[in-house]
Amino acid sequence: MAERTLAIIKPDAVAKHAIGDITHRYEEAGLSPKAMRMMCLSKTCAEGFYAVHRERPFFNDLTTYMSSGPVVVVVLEGADAVKKNRDLMGATDPKNAEAGTIRAVHGASIEANAVHGSDSVENAQIEIRYFFAESELR
Ligand code: CMP
Fold it and tell me: Most exposed residue of 5, 13, 74, 91, measured as fewest CB within 10 angstroms of its CB?
């Protein structure tokens, strides 16, 4: 089976009508959406998703931000999907992101940085399961 990763198009990117551009970039890079859902995360849902960051000073701001407006949660599948998506996204802080990457083009700040992407195959499995049932991923 090809590798899978989880992407989230964050509230800032949804608000600036960048869903189409970002999903186009995934498809152009050979990452096929296997499941996709537009939704509003509750604060509790965002806290559960980012639980690994709960001791970080930015945790409250991050989870408040992620529950501030609709997001699009996407399972992407393709060869080397985790790394390929990280390359497409660019560095966490848009100021440091390579020109032409999603965060360089659409990100506004380290918090409003347009997209999330799983950082490892193991975390991708955990993150995909957080949002999607196996029956949605055939
Ligand atoms: P993301 O890839 O979604 O994973 C955790 C998020 O925390 C990250 O993107 C950033 O948007 C956000 N964040 C906010 N402040 C920081 C920070 N100082 N360092 C790292 N991530 C941060």
Answer: 91
